Amino acid sequence: MDLDLEAELSRHTAKSVVIVPVILSGGSGTRLWPVSRESFPKQFWPLASGKSLIADTVLRTLGGEFAPPMVVCNEAHRFMVAEQLREAGVTGARIVLEPVGRNSAPAIAAAALIVAQDDPQAVICMMAADAAIPDSTALRHALIAAAEVAHSNKVVTLGMKPTKPETGFGYIEMGAPLAEMAEAHTLLRFIEKPDPDLAETLIASGKVLWNSGIFVFTVSTLLEELQAHAPHVLATVRRAVDARTGDLDFIRLGREEFAACPNISLDYAVAEHTTRAAVLPVDFAWSDVGSWSALWDLGEKDNAGNVAVGDVVIEDASNCYVRSDGMLATVLGLEDAILVVTEDAVLAAHQDRAQDVKKIVERLKAQKRPEATTHNLSYRPWGHYEVLILGDRFQVKRIVVKPGEKLSLQSHFHRAEHWVVVEGTAIVTRDTDEVFVRENESIYLPLGCRHRLYNPGRISLTLIEVQSGAYLGEDDIVRYEDTYGRS
Length: 487
Prior knowledge:
Spore Coat Polysaccharide Biosynthesis Protein SpsA, Chain A, 12 helices
């Protein structure tokens, strides 16, 4: 960031500006398979630092000029969002649940309508939950400066100074400086992800920036622009917001109303059509963490340019990204390779094909392979479980229950279960009985019995569950009571 812009941003920082961060957490990150999957997408993984991407995103805008954040997420991920915010020490956040995914325009419209009920002139900044921005101070200064421009009824986006002819990003062509702030410019047009030749031409022109997807506007400006350019989006989302209900600490949008909304991004719905578009060029490190090659860019490299994460040994290789979340992974004599190992899948690819990993996911989905969308490890509001062995009529899981938490009171039509406690203590409800089960003790739950598991202790409860029966799917659960409001 040059000195003139830094001085300008510092001047704006001194002003009293309140910005509501709206974090969109609806993506599935298929280009980062096999780590990122629909059941546990990339924003919940610690890929760029010791914290998850969503935790890093929220922490960048805490305190000072920023109001508590609002997170818009898939309802299936609600407990993961709540838990990761809690672990990050974030308080006062509002979590809005999308019953179905409908892209960024409906998501930000819902957030704006909810914020408008408190302050229709509030400034909101829209950010994806899964970007990496190491310099939080530079980002905060830029958002505050963008908020000042937004008060002039502008739709402002942050444009990132490009460092190479990247084909995985969209581009922005900027025009003349704005009267409101000379460092900001009119936004002439958005350019779709280019092929390599066009990317080279765009970079050589010196007139383009990478499209960060970070937007800043007042609530009233956004709603006016939605009414002008995407009235059906606004109308259907308004009905979904009006039909919202409270669910524990979550705001649940109306299901049928939100499902009727078009599936469209804010770029297509508003940004490409508005006459109020502006761009603030910024020059700090940014990545959308959209591929394994992006993580190679971000990673700490050895003398040969290799990035190693996890239990990895590399010999006589260069410019490789190697990650293992399970077993030992070794690489010998490769260049520009990607190797990613999880408990149930391995990806090997050339760096040049990093953007095509989604084709593998599409093929796996067509084959109805569960590895396309779900992990062996699944998170629940009470803890998590991991599938260890899956056979024709039996399944073995490791279940971990957090202190003070309990599973739902439930029964199964098709399976019986045997629980063995290996750490901690459990109180097990079995029909009308309550049984205290200690380490190295077990209990049998016959098919059809009503049962519940509770951890009364101060340490996590770990048990091995052996299921047996004709059908072992997670949908064979009848819930009678649930602390977390699940049906």
